[in-house]
Amino acid sequence: GEEVAQTPKHLVRGEGQKAKLYCAPIKGHSYVFWYQQVLKNEFKFLISFQNENVFDETGMPKERFSAKCLPNSPCSLEIQATKLEDSAVYFCASSQSQLGEQYFGPGTRLTVT
Amino acid sequence: DQQVKQNSPSLSVQEGRISILNCDYTNSMFDYFLWYKKYPAEGPTFLISISSIKDKNEDGRFTVFLNKSAKHLSLHIVPSQPGDSAVYFCAAIGVGSQGNLIFGKGTKLSVKP
Predict the structure, then answer these.
(1) Is pLDDT of B99 > 80?
(2) Does the structure show a pLDDT above 70 at B62?
């Protein structure tokens, strides 16, 4: 598609439950990036993919977070055993090149109660 | 330590006047800079970018200026319109990086009719 799509829009999970977020990048874009926005305005980079390969995972809290981008499927970000501090808006972005403009989806708001 | 700083949390401007949003950075290895606009409950929207080999880039009402020696960039919007009211984020990509964006904390622009 012409826009980055993210589902669901909102997700509520009890502490300790699993959360799974989805992202469909713009068609033809090879790179996908995940960011976490906490405290309203702070963006934190989590992980990026080049097609289905992990490109950079330096921002991922590896013990509970995992992500995949499989061919012909939306990319996903999964949080096992969510914690209160995982409450945030998670944005996915895609781009045609590694170093260039990234186009963002509308985000998924995760609330952990 | 914040590498991209937007020191003004908010800015109020009269419709028709110029809006100037500022951004400072500390890492001299940043190679590419971008400005995004964000409305509440939406993802960031790409506005304009500039490579470190340039000092100015213009697109319609938006102009970005880069002063490498001062490690400073600014976004000029002229004339400002009420629809420009949003949070503006400055972001940077480093030389040799994997392309992830490093964001400032944003400046909320209010354009009053």
Answers:
(1) yes
(2) yes
pLDDT score of A62 more than 90: no
Residues facing A54 on adjacent strands:
A49
What is the 3 state secondary structure string of B27-72?
CCCEEEEEEEEECCCCCCEEEEEEECCCCEEEECCEEEEEECCCCE
Number of Cβ within 10 Å of residue B88's Cβ equals 23
Q: How far is B41 from chain A (nearest CA, A)?
A: 7
Q: Which residue of B has its CA nearest to A90?
A: B43
Inform me whether the C-beta atom of residue B69 falls under 8 Å from chain A C-beta atoms. no
Ramachandran category for residue A64: left, alpha or beta (phi over 0 → left; psi -120 to 50 → alpha): alpha
Enumerate the residues of chain B whose CB falls inside 8 A of the CB of residue A104: 36, 43-46
Nearest neighbour of A48 by CB, restricted to B34, B49, B99: B99
Rg, chain A, Cα only: 13
